Each structure stands twice: as structure tokens, then as C-alpha cells.
Amino acid sequence: MNAFVDVSFFPREAKPLNSYRKFWAARFGTAPFLPMSQAEMAQLGWDSCDIILVTGDAYVDHPSFGMAVIGRMLEAQGFRVGIIAQPDWQSAEPFKALGKPNLFWGVTAGNMDSMINRYTADRKIRSDDAYTPGDVGGKRPDRAAIVYSQRCREAYPDVPIVLGGIEGSLRRIAHYDYWSDKVRRSIVVDSKCDLLLYGNAERAVVEIAHRLAAKVPVQEITDVRGTAFVRRQTPEGWFEIDSTSVDTPGHIEAHVNPYLMISEQAKSNGATCAREDEAQAVADSQNAVATGPKAFSEQTLQFVSNPNMPALKGKGLHKVPPRDRSVIRLPSFEQVKSDPVLYAHANRVLHLETNPGNARCLVQAHGEDHTARDVWITPPPIPLTTAEMDAVFDLPYARSPHPSYADENGSHDGATKIPAWEMIRFSVNIMRGCFGGCTFCSITEHEGRIIQSRSEASVLREIEEIRDKVKGFTGVISDLGGPTANMYRLGCKSPEIEAACRKPSCVFPGICSNLTTDHGPLVQMYRKARSLKGIKKILIGSGLRYDLAVQSPEYVKELVTHHVGGYLKIAPEHTETGPLSKMMKPGIGTYDRFKSMFDKFSAEAGKKQFLVPYFIAAHPGTSDEDMMNLAMWLKKNGFRADQVQTFYPSPMASATAMYHTTRNPLRKVTRDSEKVDVVKGEKRRRLHKAFLRYHDANHWPLLREALKAMGRADLIGNGKHHLIPTWQPLSDDYQSARRKNSTPSGSPRKGQVLTQHTGLPPRKKR
User: Fold this and answer.
1) Domain for residue 133, yes or no?
2) Number of domains in the chain
3) pTM
4) pLDDT, tens digit, for every residue of 208-244?
5) Which of 41, 113, 413, 716 could form a disulfide with 46 if both were Cys (CB 3.0 to 4.6 A apart)?
6) Contact 202, 384 (CB under 8 A)
């Protein structure tokens, strides 16, 4: 097999993960599971833990669970790592279960943001938690990263706290919080952690662990990429770029003529000066000096360069501070809290500084006067090489939940089932990152835009390991993908362009000419994977980027012929230009092109297969007319959406900035910049959801009212070209797939027959 070559030619000036000298505790070897009790520590021969990880998820020792990855990575470096999973946060005592960590606490809310995990898009409390045994809700607190950090500090005040995970990544600067409807401070300030790690943290956490083991004070660790911390002031040798304001177009007041006398200035403005004589006397004395013998002596102006500024070679070049010594000052927390325009501006600057090749440090002030503190954010981490990705996924995971969750039979089914584990139990992650740049998505803010791919050999080894070791395997791999199914080994053709690029997306408004779209390596891996002994079927469950797929008909044919289990999930998100432009998604024409290819290759394979399109309601930039047109498209094409996605403003996303500020951060932000139509208010959000579920009779009264108000009563009728009928059924037997988390659309109306949707409890099973 040929050696794998990194698709990204990104200059990787970073210390390799395998180049560190292992910590002395490596002599204890590998643990079957990272210990969760002192009894397990004793079995391993440990008297203490070097590092204790606290997580809001149940402990599943699998490479799809962030804490397992970090824990096994630190174990491979020779450290003794314990895990406290879903502790009772009401006091600090549960945080002392493993004793005092020798080096640091590692804290995360879990694989999901705790607020998104806990609340629906309508801010209703969920009754479930897919990362908890038995799918039980309420096992983690709101804003878990902050609460856990506080309890760790209470338990052992002198132990450094290193915060990570997606909750920390998405809150590293002042951010709009959808659940409280206000701008909150950086989580670094609120959690009082010593260091925040954002993005893929393997490189950073290994470096920090070894430095702390070498007795370096945590306050001195300020040069690790992908970290954030608090500083009182900018250190010497750094060039601060002020980005705390935006351009203010409009009328500009004329400058006062400095050569006019005070009285003349007043007269020119239509007023009189009460102290005209005094002003004249001052002017006369100055004029007397000016007419003296030295009045017209020349004075040479000397321009002195900044001694810290390196001289650039060549003529005609501006002297620009070096990026590795530059820091951009964002508008302060106090500014963005009260000024939506500056919030949108800060969001834009943050997203422009996400390429590890050219990103600069960011700093944001919190507080004023004696309470002033700066949150300092270093550039994003250098992406992992293919060899490093392989090493991460080849770590000795048990590929199972911790035995403490098992029932009396030793299984993890029924009351002990962890849904998130079941979802990925027989799946394989082949890559990280996404260059799509969808404004509503948090993948790029967390994993980055540089695709990090595993080698083909590593992926095949994991499939064989699932086949041989995972209980209950029937020969079907449920997914071979990642954040996106078909970005494997795709990237920029030029290392110079990749390192310099500042575009938020490689595929919007069109596919970049410098982007490789060759799906050949992925097709080859699919073929080898399904030819492995004992493998009956390889399904693709990850979301598909269809605008890339249509560039490779061979890939679409391979996918449709062998890897679709009757249905394929796809996400056009909308049909109308307005919302699509704010989402940074391709037009519906590209979807039509993919569907044509999908249907053609399905017919050639003799299979009856269907696309399952996903759409978003109430996204910024979506008008009522846009949703109406989408509903008409859905009806025309015979789609009846069951689960409806409503826009969810996650922290730091560009679409969230639109939602909060009504400004578009995809373009330069000014006081007069483009306003975005934002869908707020319960009634309008319900209306947009109702358009997506036009076939649900419970929504027809709301839709009739809206269509009449829009002047589109012509869409109300009983013909095929109408959207909804004129009549209303007495009852409806529809049951939502997520009924337990759904909320009634409103109180029952007079004369309305109650159903499960409008007030009756669910029917008892016979």
C-alpha cells in the first residue's frame, strides 16, 4: 500500500505529538478503562492521578467522545489520568472522589454544549440526554463548564484548571447567549479557569501537561496555540492593532479654522465672544512673538521609526507588524454588550482570524479601571498530520461505556443504554474539519476549516477492530464519515494560497478554483472497506456535501449503488436565495442536479431509494414569503417533513451575530451596513415552522391567517395547486417522533376538538 500523503500542504511548524519524552508514570502501562474510582486506581497500582478530567457526558471509551480522546492521549504521554463523569455539582465533595490531581484539572461540558443539550430551539427543557445512561435528562447543570470549574476550584484551590470542549470553544470571547437573551462575558472570565483550550486540543493539552510536569507555573504558559487566558496588559514587544470601532459614514462637521481669532471664530459661527478683548490681547502677544527675529526660522522634522518594527526589504513596501507579534484588540465586553454594530464587527474579525496560517492573536477587554482584564486568545492550533490523526485513533480505546454503567447482565441496553454511544457504536470517523463555512454551524469554529484526514490503513484497521471486538456487531458499519461524509482528503491545491487565504468558505458562492474535488481516494476506501471479511454493508450516515459530490459522478454512482440503505440524508436547508446567501449554502439548482444523478444511478442499480432533505425554519435572512415558497416547493416535490429544524443561535456562529444584531458580518460592518431580516417572537417562529409542516392540520389555522395577511389567499383551497385546504378536520392522529420535547402550538380554540397535539395526554398503549 502506498504511503499516505497529507492532502493539506499546510506548513506544520509544530512539535510532533510523538516527540515528547514520556512522563515517569508510563511504567504503569495502559488501563483497560481510565479509572473513575479510587478502587480502580488501586487496582492499577496508583496512589494518585496526575490529571483528572471532569465531563458532563457519561464516560464512553471511544474516539468519538472527546474526553476519552484527551484521556487516552495523555495516558500515551505517560500520565495517570482519571475521569469524573457527570458528577453531582451541588457541592465540591464529588469532585474529590479521585483525590487531588498532581498537575491539573481538565474540564469540559461534554461533546455538546450544555445549553443546546438541555433546551430546545424554543427554550423548552428537554426531557432526555443522549449522553446519559437511560437517556435521562438533568444529569448536568446549565453552563456546565462554568459550574464544574467552580467546584474544582472549591475542592482544591491551588490546582490549575484547564477548560476545553465545544462549550469553551464557542464562548472564548464575549458572546450572545440565546437562553438569557443577552451578551455574556468570555467563559475564561466567568469560569475563572487558568487556561482555555479551543478547537482540536490534542497538541495543546500535551504541551501544557509536559510543561506543568516540568514545574512551569501555569501563569507563564502564554505561547501555546489554541489557548485563551486572562492578562492585565499587553506585554512589551507586541504590536497592538486597534479594531475597537467601525467606520461611521455620514455628514462630517467642518474643522474650525485654527488661523481665525477667537472672536472671529465666534462670529463665523453666528455668535459673539464675551471676552473679545482678552482674546485679541492674547492674539496680539502671539503675533508679536511671531514677528520677532526667529519668527521664520526653519525647523527640520525628523521621522523616527519604531525600534521594534523590523525593516522590510524592497522599495515601496508598507511596514507591517509581523503577524506572530501582532494582536488585534476587539471591542471590549462593555462595548459589544451595549452596541450591536460593534458585536457584529467583533464577530467578523474573529472569523477572519481562523486560518492557522495567517491568524493573529486577539484580545478583548473585560471590565474598566481597576477591574480591567484582557482575555488573550492565541491563534488556532496547527492541524494534525495524517500520522498524528492515525495515532489518535489507534489509541487503546475499550470502545465501550465504562463497566459501572452496565446492567446486571453486563450489557448497556434498555435502562442503561446511552443513545449517543448506540449512534456511533458501529461507525468510523475518517476525518475532521469542514471548509463549508455554513454560518449556522459550529464545526468550523471548533474543528477548523483545514481537513485532517486519517490514512486508509488506519480506517480499515478500525473497521476490523469493530468487527472483532465490539459486542453485537452484525456486519453493518453504520457510517464511514465525519463532520461531512465526502470531504475526505480534499483541500487546497497550493500551500502558499492555503496559508494566506482568509475566505470563510471554500465552496461559497461557488467552489474555489484552488480546491481539489477528487473523490478518488474516498471511492477506493469504500471499495476496500466493503471487501473486508465479515463486512456485509457499509452505510454513509454523515451529511453529504452534494455540491462537491456532483463534481465526481463516479463517487455518486459508488455511493448510490453500494452505500445507501434506502434513504440518504441531505441538507439543502432552503430553496430561496435570501436565506441561502445568509447561510452560505448553494442554490437549489445544485440539489436538483444531485437528485437527478441520485435517481439515475439508483435506477441503474435496480434500487428504489429516496433522498431525505433537511430544511431550516426561521434562519436570519428568511422572510415569510421565503418560507411560503419553500412550502410550495415541498408540496410540489411530495415532501412531508416530520422533524423540523428551527434555527438555533449557537454562541459565536455568524448567523447568531445576525440574529442578535440584525447586521450581516459576512461583509464589512459599518453603522449603515446591510440589515438582516431576523425571525424573532414566538408567533413568527411558529409560522415558519408551520410552513415546513404545511401538511399538519394543526398548523392550518395559523397558515390561513398568515396567507390572507400576505395577500396569498389564492393558496387556500382544495385543489392540487393549493397549499392548504379550506376545511379543518375534527381530529388528527399525528404523533411527532420527538413528541416528548415538542410544545403545543397554542391553547385550544373555542369549538376545537382536543387531540394529542392540542391538550390531550398521549393515548395509552393497548
Assistant:
1) yes
2) 1
3) 0.86
4) 999 999 999 999 999 999 999 999 888 999 999 999 9
5) 41
6) yes
